[in-house]
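Re-run with default settings, no changes from the original entry. Doing this only to confirm the output is reproducible before filing.
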Amino acid sequence: MESNEREPAEAAAAPAGPPIDPPVVAAAAAPVPSARPPADLPVAPPVEPPVEAAVEPPVDRAAPPRAPGIAGLSAPYRVVTALALAAVGLAACGHLALVFLHVAPSNTVSKQHAQTVDDWIYPEFEQNWKLFAPNPLQQNIAVEVRAEVRSTLGGEPVPVGWRDLSAEDGAAIRHSLLPSHTRQNELRRAWDFFTGSHDEDNKPIGERGELSEQYLRRIALNRLTEDGSVRGEIIRIQLRSATRSVAAPPWSDEKTDTQTYYRELPWWTL
């Protein structure tokens, strides 16, 4: 009976499940290897030895840019420049006003200041036309001169052929960028002055006639001697005008007499 009682006790003490392996503590504590390689550790830059601070040279700073135009000048120069520009502007406006009064039709202002306008215009700024009523020249008038020259002391005077002074003036100003105002108007104005102060017999009318004769004589004598073409002593000179009307244009039916007419002056003894 004892054997039967001990069997159930042993059966009760026996484990009901399968046997469990003992836990491995060392394996659990070890780190699990990763699939990625470990990142490189940061490398500290090499430490350079201390270098003494170099002394920098002084920087040459450029002057600020000057303002363009008058604003860049100093105060005294700005004042002088402003005054000069104002004077030039006033002179230009005054010149234009006087020229306008000269070429404009006769009015109260031009009549009141006629002497001032004439003093300014003649002879440098003369205009041969009128505003709103131009009257261009319809004739070509050439002034010619000839002389009697004595080549040797006590010799007989020898005449020199006619010389076209107007043609020489025209050749001097043709195709010139800066034509001479003297070449354009001196001889022409002198001849107009002479014909306006002499009658049809070439006799002077008053003191202006004698003055115009002396003026024209000096111009002709100067032209004969200035280029050295006349050699010897000039005894006397003579002038004449060659007038020829401008021919009508081809499309016009107007008939124009283009024959040259001469007006000879008496010999003037020097």
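Helices lie at 2-13, 25-29, 75-103, 108-112, 114-121, 165-173, 181-196, 206-226. The two ends are 197 Å apart (CA to CA).
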